[in-house]
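#struct-queue
[09:14] JT: dropping the first one here, sequence first, then the structure tokens:
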Amino acid sequence: MLEALSYQFVQHAIIAGILVSFVSGIIGSLVVVNRMVFLAGGIAHAAYGGIGLALFFELPIFFGTSTFAVVAALIIATVSIRQKEKIDTFIGLIWAVGMAIGIIFIDLTPGYNVDLMSYLFGSILAVEQSDLYYMGVLLAAIIVILAFWYSKILAVSYDGEYASLCGINVQFFYSLILVLAALSVVIAIKVVGLILVIALLTIPVYIAQELSTSLLKMMILSGLLALLFTLSGLWLSYTYNLTSGASIILISALFFLFFLFFKGNR
């Protein structure tokens, strides 16, 4: 693997792995604490509509997918706050319609034979320099937002009613978390793919949650664990010519099972 570090695409893959791991660790912690896993799953699959639209209208993939995912996140946030009893049905609708839109527009794209596998299961070795800029800006934005609003996000995440009584705009921060989750899902699709993205957002977080005493510690530990899983999966996929996204999630799952076994014995 050491000789592979001389290749630019491997260098890009490692940098992307570092950036996406910490984005996933931070946002995944918020998704789990706020019990948004199902909502994030709906956004992840709806984002496929953005991929289809971006290809059809010849837009940058990240731009098209991010825009579509953010719109889906805002719609889901509005419905989940105003009509909680209908959220399951609405998530299923967004999930199905988003993927249907993506597939239709990919079919309509003239002269383009898209590799669906790269979007469904990830292709970290195909990360480009422009992708790294997008990932870096998103991570920086997340860190700035957390530094500025950490106490309010913490209050909303653990006790929304108390936060509302304290004068915090719960709807705004709830929507903000979902929008950040949508953007995080978009960059994670490049690494592990649409099908497996929720696993990257939740497996490291579950382990970190069991080992942490605060939200901040959980975010940091989740990021470090996600980085360990990502780099190990990247090594596995490069060495044995396997799909990178599936390799990363397989490593994560095996570590998760080992953690559960160790925890059970203790």
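[09:21] JT: and here's the second one, same format:
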Amino acid sequence: MLTLTSPVKTWAHGLPAAVKLTALCGATIGLFALNSPLPLATAALAAVLLMLSGGAIFAKTALRHLRPLWPFVLIVALWHLWSRDLSGGAVVILRMLTAVTLANFVTMTTRLSDMITVLERLARPLSAFGLSPRTLALAVALVIRFIPVMQDRAEQISQSWRARSARRAGWRVLMPATLAALDDAEHVAEALRARGGSA
């Protein structure tokens, strides 16, 4: 639950977390500096090659993490088709997919503890305002880790619904997914307290 680090070891696992997070920030800023489909398509291809550099199993797992984006891709595509701005739609979609792919790569090749250490170092100046850098870093890291975990849990609940009913799940999975999220959060809080963390 506390980690989404890929069990498949890649060359990027050995890189310092600070280097990967800095590179991710720089790449994301660079993506927003690109405003035409061709350069963004090149960047997207580079992100795909980066994922493939970890091997087929690693790339397959990364692709699975992109599945929750497809509804947003569809909405953006339909909107830009309706407004007859195909170039603008391609820019938004390519930028979004590339940024999330790069973020997934960093998440999958970085241990949670390493990420917390970097975030805690960055948050240290906030201690002057009474904020605990450790608590803030832990909260940010857990949010990063829990988003895809919650997406997977919602998908599991939807699959369970489809196995029992011919009707679409729709809003009916919201309550079970919310209860599952609260239950997972309580288990994580208990684990953190047992290890001397703050929760």
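[09:30] RK: nice, looked through the second one.
[09:31] RK: Residues 155 and 186 are 21 Å apart (CA to CA).
[09:31] JT: good to know. The two ends are 16 Å apart (CA to CA).
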